[in-house]
Design goal:
homodimer, alpha+beta, Glutaredoxin, Glutathione S-transferase Yfyf (Class Pi), Chain A, domain 2, 4 strands, 51% helix, 11% strand, Glutathione_S-Trfase_N (chains A, B), glutathione transferase activity (chains A, B)
Amino acid sequence: MPESYTLHYFNLQARGEAAYLIAVHGGVPVTRNLFSDFNKDLKEKCPFGQVPLLVVQDDVSGATAHIVQSIAICEFLAKKAGLIPTSHVEQAIALQYVLGVDEFRTEVYSQYYSGKETQQAKKEWKEGKMKFFLDKFESFLVGNKKEDRDLFLVGSSISWADICLYDALVEQAFLLDEDNLWGNYPLLKKFMKQVENSSESFKQYVTSSSKPVLYMKNWRQ
Amino acid sequence: MPESYTLHYFNLQARGEAAYLIAVHGGVPVTRNLFSDFNKDLKEKCPFGQVPLLVVQDDVSGATAHIVQSIAICEFLAKKAGLIPTSHVEQAIALQYVLGVDEFRTEVYSQYYSGKETQQAKKEWKEGKMKFFLDKFESFLVGNKKEDRDLFLVGSSISWADICLYDALVEQAFLLDEDNLWGNYPLLKKFMKQVENSSESFKQYVTSSSKPVLYMKNWRQ
């Protein structure tokens, strides 16, 4: 049945961007409400009081459903966007990676808000958890690599796991503001380019200036 | 195709039990390897170095796949167990609740390891985040309640979200060791009984003495 989608989030990439990237990749029309003031009315519509929130409207009956939790929204839109692998095992592996990417993001936000002096916090991040996770993601691409083919986390075509990883890597690259961040990660670097070029609408969006701002700019300054 | 499943986890309920409960509920045969020593060989098989790990073996080819992250394992087994709602919207809402239950669990483990004096930590938990989450879950049951029907988080039949919530509530009840914990939550209390009685194999397992021990026993002492 025909449905309309509205994605509510702060005017930031952070935990709201991956869902939108998935929709853009698959040509799923999603209207965004990007706000700077998270007002009470909206907050009350969110089951756990948090955004992102996806409002799904049935175009025939007008009935609406509210979906929260970024990963639940991403998986829902990935089904509409054709970005879910076909077998149950590959579906589970995709979700496993999405959950791992989410941990990576939770860890960096936690370090960012640790109260530590900026340079010290960045140094610890880069030598500790960031290295752990980037080593892991590079190794997953190595493990799933086949000759003469693009790089994917799961199976042999792009899935929502790839988009979620791409989104987190864009944030890392911004955050650390270092051209050589990818020096130790040749496959991750290649992977990002391949994801960027994997759909015309996606490429157009990610290279446009219409994206919300990235998070945690203080680390970059 | 026929598959065999082995679930590896510490000899504890914690983050390993919900997956097993889902399998038991749906009659999916899962062998468990419950260990006290997380050895290096097994750790190396886990993509992020963490359990739970579900090993899926194709009974024809003998090929194996490794799935980690408790929520990915739960969703995979829920598909085999017939515990996934039918529509995309209800599937997303189920996952949203599973992710919320996981946050609830993460918060209590974090408070448990906060280094605060036991009674103080428990008091803060009960008056803060525990109250927040139990109020939420009670309200979700109220919101989805229909006359003359059992209580479910999503739709009108039991789903993996209900099993995951049940599992977390069992842990809470143990943890706080208070008969009156459910005084403010009549629907959660009723819900737990209904989940327990919703499948013969499930009821048999949860009332047996063959379950692993519960986590965080210090708060109970």
